[in-house]
Backbone:
């Protein structure tokens, strides 16, 4: 904007009417970039004066405007920028003045509707190159949300570059990936670089997913994202060695990002990205070493499918076919992405599993004695093997169309196994049995007796019909294909469909089968032109004559071909059937395909089904047909593998025996055989060919006899066609299907009467799991398909996920493909694993499980749930970057305002620390003095100053003599050293001792210890100017703080060191103003303050989860709390000792563990207190090595840990030092919990001494803290370590623990030691987090929960070691407002109220007994009842035979005695599913018979067990009661788990004497005398 335009605008604004009550107008012209500073002299206004702020005249301008001149209009030109509002003297004037801007940035911001403040202006200026085009500004201003903060502006620009309307980090990141992994060729990223958004992009990535690399690399980012996401569904140890690519604190975000992308519409690019990551990280080779079970739940890598398939197909090739593993794996994988490229392989092995299952069911072979019985078995179940074989080869043929180099050959090996199962076993065994039992009937009658015959088809099906009949004859459609089609027709159309069978005429070829389906009284044959022709009542039945034959019987008949009518127009084909009573439609897809290629037959079967269903729709919709018969002329036999010689028979006997000339044998006139094919032969009467079975031909009324090979053997012939054959007597060839299809119109009586039966609906899916409480971020639920997919129930796909009350999705989406056809309800169950998003969940809110039909045809089901997860907080989202809340910049500004001079950039400490062995707190003090700026130049200069000071002045112990020599030579020298001052009372003078310099007895002026009292309290680090004088004067070189000579009271110079102190300057905090700390704390939120504390000890909070932050904070409690005993055991490299060694000058770390009573407590010889009296905290590193040279060392330690005092000699000494025990665990926590205790790493004399361990106030779970990597250490601002240490030390004097009593009361299970421990922890947490004493009830409750958890962890281990004495572990607290009691558990062990309050669902039972590990625990049974035939399915037991035996005992007992309980319990028409859960991870119990019996009766009767019930004891198969082992301990577990009623066998009454009275009184004991009595009382039936 030019000057004239500016003057014009300003004159207009000053001329405008004044607002009400205003006497004049003041306009502030903001020009932070000083664009118009040189042109200000040109600005002359008509009705206002112009004054300019210079940065030094703010006070005089304020006086002018507020005091001297109150009537004149003013234009105040302000080029100033203020870091803090308090620095702006004119702020109050600005608030009642108007604003004017004329610079380009301001105009752009106004155009885009952006808030105008310095921070936003700075970012708009940063994006000047982007905003200088109007269309680009429009892209930002028209987004769904106008940015309000700098961070949101970053996001808006990146989103605009990506072409997005919604500035969501996920979509921005996805857009970048979709442009390619090569940054140089990535057009989106290059635009980021072009418009200076690349730094913001990487900052967003770092905050969201924890990716930190010096050189930006999208490939590395992709590896980081996918590997971190994979750890959500895969154990991290499976990715060992790739830890640098994994950030567990960002796991939730990475998983959510990948999961959202996986389930989006555009995943093609993700496939390429995932393949890149697989190659770079060599994941295929890594996953090869894992089991299928390890891999099946992870979907983000396509190669997992290849590994799984490779393993399963290799096992199949090795004759290991685990049906359950294959079916469960395919079930799981088909709901995953990347399934489609591998679908054919999965479908193929699934059919192998089905074939293997069939094989197991009939492994004894086929030994049926009657032909009609085999026929019945085949049409009811055996045909399914043909279907499995067909579907397998369909999958195999499709797999050949899309090659996979890793799987193709393996799949071909599987083919060999399939051929063995089908061809050699099924066709061989069944064919042999069938050939044996049908031989006589076929030879005698030419047919199987008591089986419907194809020759009777017209007579029995057409002539008897009183309605119009449509007959569809599909050439070579065998029975199993028709069964598949009938099933589909029933589900897809409003109809009544049934399938039956009839025996094809022999031979089972087209000309004979087609003839048999025509009306006739007798079929005969004649040889016409050397060809055997079939006649119906003397008429030819060739295709061109079939309509004539039909019309002979009924003139209103017509014969049509499918291929012809399908090509006709609707009117044309309708005209053909108009007025006809009988319509024959011939369809030839399957047989026709065999003429092209044998391998095309199975694909043709699918095509035929589709074509025939379409034909049915045409008949119904266009022809008005309701009565349709679908049949075939014959079936077929197909085997894929090449036939061996033993599978063929020669044509011996087909020719005259005396003919030897091959030319003559070709002449039909001299052949004995009239016609033959691969599977049949028609011979002259009297001929008996070798190896063929006789079959009576056409009732014996011809001059020919029929013959057929046994089983699936073929007759040798020239030419191909050996694999696909028909004409013989196998079941596959002779069983001809007949589908009766009756379309039901809406007004038909049958439909109206049975509407429910015929209306097709999708099957529904319901939740099977009874528990409605979620306590983990990752959890699994069981579902069941209510009905089998059947005649009127079609398959459906459901999406299952969780939402909050507002419908916002809070979990990932799981898919359930509900297409189970089994009548066994147990086989219609599904298990889904859910991952909750990393949000903050309220245990009082209601959340919903949503089961939604993918097609949206049904109303979604909603099941209410409670989520109770401690520390589940949304702290890791990229959206925080976008929202700009609590950003580092804001925290830094607050720190500057409230703690200026007491903060330091921690990365500077790290840089210098690497080269100087000086304590951190010393370094940070110096850095705080020299580097307190944002200006990189100032910081660099300050760092150089600090380095120079350290290099020139720091005293290394090994150079002390060198320094003293220089001091003596030069007469003066400045050093940095630890200085301790003592008062010599005999000489009435203060003397200083130098730690590294190794000298003492140096006189020091009184003013120093008086002013810097910490010199007398253990000493502080100082910069000291020393002088060296051999002959001193009367003041001995002592100067006061201002450098003036002081007279000393010392009389004898000979006792004085020649070294004197000229000047002493502390480089630690000389004293602390605790009130300043408390006041400063008010400026920060809880989360901000927590982050500041962690950065102050060198940690980067953005790299840790919310819970991990609290665990790190727990390490600080011993520093802030007197006499606090903490134990932390965990993996190596988690920084357990770092805090106590490097950060705090008030703690000491004893490495190696070995010490003495004198060193630790009191030296009797010197009469001096040991370490506990000198330090605030004594930490023992490597607890496994703790060893006292004194026998009474541990006893004294126990005394001190309990009371804070110890007796030595004749008196008792007291101290306040806290004790910390840190060490490594060499096994996983799971193993320790099951085999020993979490104190196992301690020495034997400590780790098993319950009195010693009970004195531990807190057990910090070190295994939950990640191993430290460079990114875990902060580069941001925190308190100077010395300041942190000193205000923590000051806080030791204060007490906040009584705050608990204002809102809460601890539960009754906490004894005095527990109460003391919990109160001390609460006190410590409050002092650290809320030093100003201001906190809410909710914030206090959060602290109580973690304090109870830390103490309960100690108590849980004592329970293992000490038994009944320590069984009161059910820690809780009571809210005094509503007197509600809340229980707290430990994550690694469960616990809490495992048995919930209130009534459970029917079928849900809790039992308490001894698990496989020998420990007593709680087990939950959940059951469901489904329509079925009396089967029971158990899940959750694995392969444990004893557990399964107990379940069988219960079910068998119910079968035998169910009527004695209730006549309405059915064990024959219902199926039962029971899921068993080990709630505490101690190994499943085998005491399951009685709980199972109760669960079965509960679900069968629909009646829940009484509330808060625990079932104890067990029964045998005869009903004999088994008493409870360790009754007292078992009852204690019941109490701990929340049980209020206990069902107990009367046989256990004898053990009541061993149970404490208060434990007995805690329950309502319900005795039972028998199994039936137990059921009645459990269900509350009197």
Residues:
């Amino acid at each position: 904007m030019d000057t004239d335009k500016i003057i014009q605008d300003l004159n207009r604004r000053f001329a405008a009417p004044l607002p009400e009550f205003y006497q004049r107008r003041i306009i502030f012209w903001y020009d932070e970039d000083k664009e118009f500073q040189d042109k200000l002299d040109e600005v002359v206004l008509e009705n206002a004066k112009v004054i300019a702020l210079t940065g030094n005249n703010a006070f005089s301008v304020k006086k002018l405007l507020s005091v001297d001149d109150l009537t004149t209009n003013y234009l105040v030109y302000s080029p100033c920028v203020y870091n803090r509002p308090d620095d702006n003297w004119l702020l109050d004037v600005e608030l009642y003045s108007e604003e004017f801007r004329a610079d380009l940035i301001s105009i752009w911001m106004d155009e885009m509707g952006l808030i105008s403040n310095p921070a936003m202006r700075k970012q708009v200026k940063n994006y000047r190159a982007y905003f200088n085009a109007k269309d680009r500004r429009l892209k930002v201003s028209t987004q769904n949300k106008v940015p309000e903060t700098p961070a949101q502006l970053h996001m808006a620009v990146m989103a605009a570059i990506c072409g997005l309307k919604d500035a969501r980090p996920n979509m921005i990141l996805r857009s970048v990936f979709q442009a390619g992994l090569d940054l140089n060729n990535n057009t989106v990223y290059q635009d980021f670089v072009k418009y200076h958004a690349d730094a913001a992009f990487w900052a967003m990535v770092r905050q969201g997913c924890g990716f930190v690399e010096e050189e930006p690399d999208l490939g590395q980012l992709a590896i980081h994202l996918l590997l971190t996401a994979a750890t959500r569904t895969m154990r991290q140890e499976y990715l060992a060695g790739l830890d640098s690519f994994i950030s567990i604190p960002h796991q939730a975000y990475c998983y959510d990002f990948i999961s959202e992308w996986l389930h989006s519409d555009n995943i093609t690019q993700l496939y390429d990205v995932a393949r890149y990551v697989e190659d770079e990280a060599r994941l295929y080779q890594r996953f090869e070493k894992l089991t299928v079970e390890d891999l099946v739940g992870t979907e983000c890598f396509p190669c997992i499918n290849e590994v799984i398939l490779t393993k399963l197909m290799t096992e199949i090739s090795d004759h290991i076919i685990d049906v359950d593993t294959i079916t469960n794996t395919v079930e799981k994988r088909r709901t995953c992405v990347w399934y489609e490229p591998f679908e054919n392989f999965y479908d193929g092995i699934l059919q192998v599993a089905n074939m293997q299952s069939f094989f197991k069911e009939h492994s004894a072979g086929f030994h049926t004695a009657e032909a009609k019985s085999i026929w019945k078995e085949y049409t009811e179940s055996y045909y399914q093997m043909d279907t499995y074989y067909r579907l397998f080869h369909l999958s195999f043929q499709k797999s050949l169309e899309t090659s996979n180099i890793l799987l193709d050959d393996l799949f071909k090996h599987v083919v060999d196994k399939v051929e063995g199962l089908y061809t050699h076993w099924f066709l061989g065994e069944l064919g042999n049995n069938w050939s044996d039992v049908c031989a006589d009937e076929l030879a005698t009658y030419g047919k199987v007796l008591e089986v419907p015959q194809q020759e009777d088809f017209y007579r029995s099906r057409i002539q008897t019909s009183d309605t119009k009949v449509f007959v569809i004859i599909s050439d070579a459609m065998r029975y199993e294909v028709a069964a598949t089609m009938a099933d589909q027709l029933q589900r897809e159309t409003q109809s009544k469909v049934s399938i039956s069978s009839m025996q094809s005429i022999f031979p089972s070829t087209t000309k004979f089968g087609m003839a048999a389906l025509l009306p006739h009284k007798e079929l005969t044959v004649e040889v016409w032109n050397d060809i055997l022709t079939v006649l119906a009542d003397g008429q030819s039945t060739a295709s061109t004559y079939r309509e004539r034959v039909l019309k002979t019987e009924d003139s209103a008949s017509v014969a049509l071909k499918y291929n012809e009518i399908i090509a006709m127009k609707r009117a044309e084909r309708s005209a053909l059937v108009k007025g006809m009573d009988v319509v024959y439609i011939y369809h030839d897809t399957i047989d026709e395909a065999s003429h092209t290629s044998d391998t095309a037959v199975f694909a043709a079967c699918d095509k035929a089904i589709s074509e025939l269903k379409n034909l049915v729709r045409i008949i119904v919709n266009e022809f008005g047909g309701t009565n349709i018969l679908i049949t075939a002329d014959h079936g077929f036999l197909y085997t894929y593998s090449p036939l061996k010689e033993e599978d063929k028979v020669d044509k011996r006997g087909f020719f005259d025996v005396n003919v030897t000339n091959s030319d003559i044998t070709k002449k039909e006139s001299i052949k004995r055989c009239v016609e033959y094919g691969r599977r049949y032969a028609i011979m002259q009467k009297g001929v008996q060919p070798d190896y063929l079975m006789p079959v009576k031909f056409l009732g014996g009324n011809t001059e020919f006899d029929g013959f057929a090979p046994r089983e699936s053997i073929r007759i040798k012939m020239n030419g191909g066609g050996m694999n696909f054959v028909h004409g013989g007597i196998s079941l596959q060839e002779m069983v001809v299907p007949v589908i009766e299809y009756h379309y039901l119109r809406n007004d038909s009586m049958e439909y109206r009467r049975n509407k429910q039966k015929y209306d097709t609906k999708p099957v529904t899916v319901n939740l099977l799991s009874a528990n409605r409480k979620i306590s983990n971020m990752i959890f699994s639920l069981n579902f069941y398909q209510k009905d089998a997919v059947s005649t009127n129930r079609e398959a459906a796909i459901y999406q299952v996920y969780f939402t909050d009350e507002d419908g916002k999705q809070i979990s990932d989406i799981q898919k359930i493909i509900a297409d189970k056809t089994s009548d066994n309800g147990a086989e219609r169950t599904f298990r889904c694993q859910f991952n909750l998003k990393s949000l903050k969940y309220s245990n009082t809110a209601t959340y919903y499980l949503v089961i939604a039909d993918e097609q949206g045809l049904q109303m979604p089901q909603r099941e209410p749930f409670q989520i109770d997860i401690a520390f589940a907080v949304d702290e890791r989202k990229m959206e925080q970057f976008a929202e700009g809340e609590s950003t580092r910049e804001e925290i830094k500004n607050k720190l500057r305002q409230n703690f200026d001079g007491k903060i330091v950039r921690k990365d500077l400490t790290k840089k210098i620390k690497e080269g100087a062995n000086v304590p951190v707190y010393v370094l940070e003090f110096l850095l705080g003095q020299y580097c307190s700026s944002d200006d990189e130049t100032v910081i660099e200069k300050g760092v150089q100053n600090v380095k120079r000071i350290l290099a020139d002045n720091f005293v290394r112990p090994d150079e002390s003599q060198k320094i003293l020599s220089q001091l003596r030579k030069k007469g003066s020298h400045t050093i940095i050293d630890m200085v301790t001052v003592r008062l010599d009372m005999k000489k009435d003078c203060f003397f200083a001792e130098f730690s590294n310099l190794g000298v003492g007895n140096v006189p020091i002026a009184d003013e120093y210890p008086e002013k810097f009292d910490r010199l007398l309290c253990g000493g502080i680090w100082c910069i000291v100017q020393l002088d060296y004088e051999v002959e001193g004067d009367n003041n001995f070189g002592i100067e006061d703080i201002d450098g003036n000579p002081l007279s000393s009271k010392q009389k004898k110079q000979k006792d004085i060191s020649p070294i004197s102190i000229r000047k002493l300057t502390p480089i630690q905090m000389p004293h602390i103003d605790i009130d300043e700390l408390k006041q400063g704390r008010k400026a920060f939120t809880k989360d901000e303050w927590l982050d500041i504390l962690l950065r102050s000890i060198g940690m980067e909070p953005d790299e840790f989860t919310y819970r991990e932050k609290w665990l790190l904070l727990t390490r600080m409690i011993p520093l802030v709390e007197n006499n606090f005993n903490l134990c932390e055991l965990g993996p190596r490299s988690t920084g357990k000792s770092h805090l106590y060694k490097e950060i705090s000058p008030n703690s000491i770390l004893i490495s190696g563990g070995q010490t003495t009573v004198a060193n630790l407590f009191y030296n009797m010889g010197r009469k001096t207190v040991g370490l506990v009296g000198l330090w605030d905290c004594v930490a023992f590193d490597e607890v496994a090595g703790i060893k006292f040279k004194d026998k009474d060392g541990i006893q004294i330690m126990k005394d001190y840990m309990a009371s804070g005092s110890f007796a030595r000699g004749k008196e008792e000494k007291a101290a306040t030092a806290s004790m910390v025990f840190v060490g490594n665990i060499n096994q996983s926590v799971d193993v320790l919990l099951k085999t020993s205790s979490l104190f196992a790493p301690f020495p034997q004399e400590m780790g098993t001494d319950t009195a010693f361990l009970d004195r531990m106030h807190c057990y910090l779970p070190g295994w939950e803290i990640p191993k430290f990597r460079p990114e875990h250490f902060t580069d941001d601002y925190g308190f100077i370590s010395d300041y942190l240490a000193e205000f923590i030390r000051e806080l030791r004097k204060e007490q906040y623990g009584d705050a608990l009593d204002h809102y809460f009361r601890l539960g009754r299970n906490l004894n005095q030691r527990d109460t003391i421990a919990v109160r001390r922890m609460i006190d410590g947490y409050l002092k650290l987090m809320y030093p100003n004493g201001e906190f809410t009830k909710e914030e206090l409750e959060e602290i109580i929960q973690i304090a109870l958890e830390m103490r309960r962890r100690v108590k849980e281990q004592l329970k293992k070691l000490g038994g009944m004495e320590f069984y009161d572990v059910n820690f809780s607290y009571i809210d005094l407002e509503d007197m509600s009691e809340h229980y707290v558990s430990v994550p690694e062990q469960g616990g809490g109220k495992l048995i919930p309050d209130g009534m459970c669902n029917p079928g849900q039972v809790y039992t308490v007994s001894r698990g496989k590990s020998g420990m007593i625990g709680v087990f939950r049974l959940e059951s469901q009842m489904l329509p079925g035939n009396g089967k029971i399915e158990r899940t959750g037991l694995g392969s444990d035979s004893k557990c399964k035996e107990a379940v069988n005992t219960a079910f068998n007992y119910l079968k035998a005695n169910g009527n004695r309980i209730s006549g309405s319990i059915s064990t024959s028409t219902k199926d039962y599913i029971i899921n068993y859960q080990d709630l505490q991870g101690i190994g499943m119990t085998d005491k399951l018979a009685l709980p199972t019996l109760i669960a079965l009766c509960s679900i069968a009767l629909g009646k829940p067990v009484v509330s808060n019930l625990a079932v104890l004891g067990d029964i045998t198969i005869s009903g004999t009661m088994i008493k409870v082992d360790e009754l007292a301990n078992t009852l204690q577990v019941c109490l701990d788990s929340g049980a209020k009623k206990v069902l107990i066998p009367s046989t256990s009454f004898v053990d009541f004497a061993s149970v404490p009275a208060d434990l007995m009184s805690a329950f309502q004991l319900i005795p039972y005398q028998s199994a039936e009595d137990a059921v009645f009382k459990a269900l509350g039936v009197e």
